Each structure stands twice: as structure tokens, then as C-alpha cells.
């Protein structure tokens, strides 16, 4: 039976991965999460009803606690989602990004290395350490081309730099110590349980409440969007069948400008909650969600375009997205509108949807 340690399991992608494991596998899971502002125990409410899930509130940078968990649980694999992940916050204060994304990954790798040294036979052959990373480590693209697994790293934000450093540590622990590691680099995820500081949930909630839909720069920055459940399916495929020491890009093949995303969200919200019947818009004298669009000064160091070449994971592991962008966005908007209490609970006292990441000279 698989026994997995999943770090950062109370965050957006981690929660969805736990739910996917429970639905698709018989794995037993220990979830480790520090429960910072973006990690919410409320998101794990359904998962924690299962006797296959144990939750431990801990910081992966704590060597004693992390080592004790490995010793007690004796995992067959580790999936590391634990990370500070918001570019704007990394501009405001890079410190927690260095502490969690770099130092935390180092401590986790060392705990895994010590555990791996105790294994033999089948358990040693099957053990994997999977590190979940981002396409932002590659920097920015021009109008053409895609990020492949061989694209040189060129991170442009403190967040991206911290994730790039962690990727290099994971690779080095394989090359130097023989730890069977895997790295996945994904494009922008969207779907349920995402903390409402990221573009899609933020725009949905602001639209419903008649708040400004702030768009950085000219809104023409392009991202490749991936539905979170498709990402989780890819991670599980890599964990079970990926080649040790390899990395796999996971992308949805859905390039959209930020402006296109906002316009699509406005249309989807309109289909569910027409602006003409929304008191928040009526109070402002507005008849369309599109009228909430507000252009603001661009983010410092804002990468222009990301796009993923996912041909390796498709060819080697047979993965492909199950959700097209239109249906995924529709499902996502419906989820946030149906789960307003969750949104209010996770935002309470943590973040009021104000703009962050502004350098004051």
C-alpha cells in the first residue's frame, strides 16, 4: 500500500491532490502543513473524514519534527507542494519565500535521504521524492516558443528565484546522493480551493461584489492555464511512472492574456448572476461586469508570456488534460459562487483583496 507524505497539503493544489488520491487510489496519506495564510484546514474538511488521512501542523523547515514524521510513518513516497507562491507577496517580503521554498526543501530532502538509506529491496526501488515546481523558473517568453524541460532557468521574481533554487537542490540530491527524485514544472493552475489573491478567484469575487477588476499594465501578459484536477492527475502519473532523476512539464495548452481571462470570467458570472439583478452593481450605476475593469500600473518584473511544452509527459506517461478551458472555467466560477462561506472563512483577518507587490521608492 502506498504511504505518502504530502507537504503543503492544505494549500490550493495540495488539497485538490489529497482529494484526487482519495478518489483514485488506496493510498494512506500524512498531510503536513504550516497553515500560513494560504493553507486552510477548512479546505481539508472532507478529506479528514477519511481514516486514510492524517494531518500534522508543522513547518517542513523544522528538522526534528520532519525527521520524526519520516521515522514514524516510513513513507513509500513524498510529494512536496509546500511553498510560498504569490509573486506580489515575494516582492513585498522575500524572506518567507527563502525560508520555506529553499530551506524547507533542503530539510525535507535531507529527511528523505536519511529515510531512503534505511530502505532495501522493493521499498528502496519504489521510493520517490516528487517536487512540485512552476514554469516561472524559466523566466519569460517572446511571442513564439514554449518552455521545455531543457529551457535554461532565468527567474525574474523573488518567488521564481526561490523555486528555481529548490529545483536545483532536488536535482543535486539525485545526482550526488542517488535520491530518486522527480520534478514537475506546471503552468498556471485554476479551480476550487485557490486562495482569493490569485487572478481567477480574485476577479470572480470582486465582480460579484462590484469591486474593481484591476488589470496590470495593458492586460496582454499571457499565461498557459491548467485545470487543477488535470495537474493532480499528471503528478500522480509522474510519481508512479516517471523516470527517477527526470523532470516533467505539465501544461494545459490554454494560452490566454490576462484581459481575455477577465472578460471570460465576466461573461461566466453574468450567465449565473446577471449584472442587472446584482445589488452591488446597481448601487454603482453599472449595467455590466465589464465596466468594473480597471487598468493599473504593471507589476515590477512582470513576465510577459509563459507557455508549456508538455510533450514529454504526454509521450512517456500518456497524460493529457481531461478538461477543456471553457468547461473548466465554468465549473470554477460555479464553485466559487456556491462556496462563498469558504471564501469568507479563508480570507477573514488575512487579506482584504488590496493590491500588494508595489515597490515604494
What sequence of helices (H) and strands (E) makes up the elements? EHEEHEHHHEHEEHEEHEEHHEHHH
Largest sheet: 7 strands, parallel
Uncertain parts: none
Class derived from helix and strand content: alpha/beta
Tally of contiguous helical segments:
13
> How much beta, percentage-wise?
15-25%
Description:
This protein has 361 residues and is an alpha/beta fold. It contains 13 helices and 12 strands. Strands 3-2-1-4-5-6-10 form a 7-stranded parallel β-sheet, with helices on both faces. Strands 7-9-11 form a 3-stranded mixed β-sheet. A two-stranded parallel sheet has the order 8-12. Helix 7 packs across helix 12.
Secondary structure elements and pairings:
Blueprint: E1 3-7, H1 12-24, E2 28-33, E3 53-57, H2 63-73, E4 77-80, H3 87-92, H4 95-117, H5 121-126, E5 128-134, H6 158-177, E6 181-186, E7 188-190, H7 199-208, E8 213-216, E9 222-227, H8 228-241, E10 247-250, E11 255-257, H9 258-272, H10 279-283, E12 293-296, H11 311-317, H12 325-338, H13 340-347
Parallel strand pairs: 1-2, 1-4, 2-3, 4-5, 5-6, 6-10, 7-9, 8-12
Antiparallel strand pairs: 9-11
Helix pairs in contact: 1-8, 2-4, 4-6, 7-9, 7-12, 9-12
Provide a quick synopsis of the model.
By secondary structure, the protein is an alpha/beta fold.
Search tags:
361 residues; alpha/beta; Rossmann fold; 7-stranded parallel sheet; 3-stranded mixed sheet; 13 helices; globular
